[in-house]
Amino acid sequence: MRKVSIFGATGSIGQNTIDLIARDPESYDVVALTGGRNTAQLVRDARRLKADVAVTAFPELLDDLRAALDGSGIEAAAGATAIDEAASRPADWVMSAIVGAAGLAPGLKALEQGATLALANKESLVTAGPLIMGTAKAHNARILPVDSEHSAVFQGLIGEDFDAVERIIITASGGAFRDWSLEDMAQATPAQASSHPNWNMGQRITIDSASMFNKALEVIETKEFFGCSHDMIEVLVHPESMIHALVGFNDGALMAHVGPPDMRHAIGFALNWPERRKLPVERLDLAKIGSFHFRDPDMVRYPALRLAHEVLEAGGMNGAIFNAAKERALDGFLEGRIGFLQMAETVEKVLTRMSVDTRLINAEMTLDTVSQTDHLARKRADEVMAEWQT
Ligand code: NDP
Ligand code: MG
What we know:
The chain is α/β, with parallel strands linked by helices. The chain has 3 domains: 2-145, Rossmann fold, CATH 3.40.50.720; 150-260, no CATH class; 315-389, RNA polymerase sigma factor, region 2, helix turn helix motif (Rna Polymerase Sigma Factor, Chain: A). Helix content is 49%, strand content 15%. The chain is built from 18 helices and 11 strands. It has helices spanning 12-22, 39-49, 62-69, 80-88, 104-112, 122-138, 148-156, 182-186, 190-193, 203-211, 213-226, 263-272, 286-289, 303-314, 318-334, 342-355, 358-361, 367-389; strands at 2-7, 28-35, 53-56, 75-78, 93-96, 116-119, 143-145, 165-172, 233-237, 243-249, 254-258. The strands form 2 sheets. A 7-stranded parallel β-sheet has the order 4-3-2-1-5-6-7, with helices on both faces. β1 (2-7), α1 and β2 form a beta-alpha-beta unit. The model has no long low-confidence stretch (mean pLDDT 97). The structure holds NADPH dihydro-nicotinamide-adenine-dinucleotide phosphate and magnesium ion. Residues 147-149, 218 line the site of magnesium ion. Residues 143-226 form the 1-deoxy-D-xylulose 5-phosphate reductoisomerase C-terminal domain. Residues 259-379 form the DXP reductoisomerase C-terminal domain. 1-deoxy-D-xylulose 5-phosphate binds at residues 122, 148-149, 173, 196, 209, 214-215, 218. Catalyzes the NADPH-dependent rearrangement and reduction of 1-deoxy-D-xylulose-5-phosphate (DXP) to 2-C-methyl-D-erythritol 4-phosphate (MEP).
């Protein structure tokens, strides 16, 4: 039996992971499940999968969690330190599916104990790519990408010589506002930004898809994970979301990964790697689909894409600043403090203001320095948003 843990078990990726694991209970011994506010779901899954420990991120929910697990023999715990402790428990395979920068520390802990880390939490690579890749190397641990585009690139590279790769093309559906005018986007509400045409995902990543911040994070994630130069990375709008990525080789060949927009493919690929096993996803009927469409992204409507390349060019702590400012700006948008287009403006202003502090930008990358930078960038984002409100 393989020992597995799922961080962010109550979310969209976490629930899809549980769906796959619960189909084959004989094969998995579940160590830790973690969640946030949805303790009812956490309790149901911890009992069903007979986890050793269930952890909520929020200490004020510990009493409820403990009461609900009473008599089950499952440990209850709460808070960020308890999540880190759960990540240090030996496991063969760990799903990193907490949303946001909170996913970084437990991912590092899992790598330190040598687990294979299935990485859905793209923010880990964006904020601290060299730290997370370096930790994996130092502890001989493996990271497998779960983001669909990166899983697609990873699959396209199997058996290939990376030196022969010229381009990595990741696709974008275009999100909720792909056919909206800039004027309409400026007025968009959180409810409008929270519905995705093709994928069923958590609210934050769905809004990030509408602003293309999700794709911007993925451009950075591609560079950090595959170690390629950022000018090899292209974004292509593909409204059908069936081709997830393409790898372009020096002989002109483009290898495309095609599949239904169902995260259980990428999750299952990481779960079964290095084997392929049968997965419960739709088999595409291409004759019925008939055609695929492509276009270049509109860089004026989606400044996040330009910012991603600027962040990669500048390097250092800029990824951590970019992500933290983006997370805070998204909070601001959800709370009605700023408009949809002001999210990118906030992030750009924070990057510009913090760029003068070269000591901070070029500091040695540790969990502490990344956390401090993250904290400061959130404060700067709040300042920028407050300036607009006065
Ligand atoms: P969800 O919002 O659906 O789930 C997030 C999970 O994190 C939940 O379990 C949530 O708990 C938990 N959580 C929330 N806040 C905290 C916190 N402060 N500390 C610890 N745990 C917390 O997100 P998704 O599943 O959509 O996304 C998860 C990650 O995977 C993100 O990084 C996203 O970018 C990435 N990803 C997602 C894809 C998708 O298809 N959904 C595709 C590719 C990548 P609770 O709900 O109980 O409050
Ligand atoms: Mg993706």
